[in-house]
Amino acid sequence: MGGLAEQAVDRACQAYIDRDLARCHAVLEGETLINATEREIDELAFDLLAMQQPMAVDLRFILAVTKINSDLERVGDQAVNIAERVMDLVELPKVELPVDIPRMAAAVAAMVRRSLESFIEGKAELAQAVLEMDNVVDRMKDEAFIILVKAMNEHPDVTRQALDALLVARNLERVADHATNIAEDVIFWVRGADVRHGANPESSARQEVSDTH
Amino acid sequence: MGGLAEQAVDRACQAYIDRDLARCHAVLEGETLINATEREIDELAFDLLAMQQPMAVDLRFILAVTKINSDLERVGDQAVNIAERVMDLVELPKVELPVDIPRMAAAVAAMVRRSLESFIEGKAELAQAVLEMDNVVDRMKDEAFIILVKAMNEHPDVTRQALDALLVARNLERVADHATNIAEDVIFWVRGADVRHGANPESSARQEVSDTH
Fold this sequence. Notes:
The structure is a homodimer of 213-residue chains. With 213 residues, chain A is mostly helical. Helix content of chain A is 79%, strand content 0%. Chain A is elongated and about 60 Å long. About 4% of the residues of chain A have low confidence. Chains A and B meet through helix 2, helix 3, helix 5 and helix 6 of A and helix 2, helix 3, helix 5 and helix 6 of B.
């Protein structure tokens, strides 16, 4: 599931960079498998809860898995959204926009990769590092927003392209928020602590996939 | 939790209509309580799973509750996002925009209310009605998008206001998607069926809080 979600984001970002319709279609088609896999994992978790009645760390693990599963499915949705923006962009004249989407995409991909590593290795320290990366991505998105609104104002003829880029930046920020959620669920599982909403003062507040700009 | 989330959306929409900063602040302040309530419900669910080891319909109920809880918290986040857009709008000159946000807000509020009713009364038929309302809201958002992009192109001086309204429309559409998720979780609990992603052919596909435009 993690691999599928990661691949979807990578493909969507590469599609943006290369204005590549084939990769967009691959992302759209891949969504069916991601959705089916989410259901399968959910059913497995349900059966385990119903039949094994797990306790303590095992129960925490299964609950963390169901949440991570849901976040990964939503990462897949964001990849679909990016692919759809690219499909819109490809139909429009190519313009230079003052925003570095590839740099943002690289930072977000690194967060997703590390959050999955922290899960696979059961390492809370790795997960903690993901939480710290999230602020960087938030700042990139805020900057993109300001610059692109300015571009729309000054060059109305590129409004639609700038809007597409702005929405891609927002989708990337949401992917980063889901990676943050995954990292927090790993910490919950490994340490038994709930780090959401700054309940644990030494950690960052949970990212609620909010779009403050 | 449902009441808090519903109130947050109502306040944010009323703030948009009246350009009312006081209501915006009420939404931002209300988020803390929503987040705390989410944690509390999550902990109760965890304790029940750990100590009572519920089976069959009880297990389905608790799993549905944890998902509904998470969707309601995200509804609260969307209300915060709307309030932030309103705070931006209030600083800009007031302009007439060709979009009926109040009508969309009313449709979305009705979906949230009915999804909560279906949960409280345990009625799958009510939940089914929510699924059918979702397409209407999606269409409203698509129309808003097309009209507002046109407005930005033709009147660059209102770009920022039009963008704020566009983002409010998207946030409302996301609230509708969360109401749809809640309705599906009610059906899962009551009927024991998973209606996500069109797994059940007689129902609509699960709304994945995606933004296809």
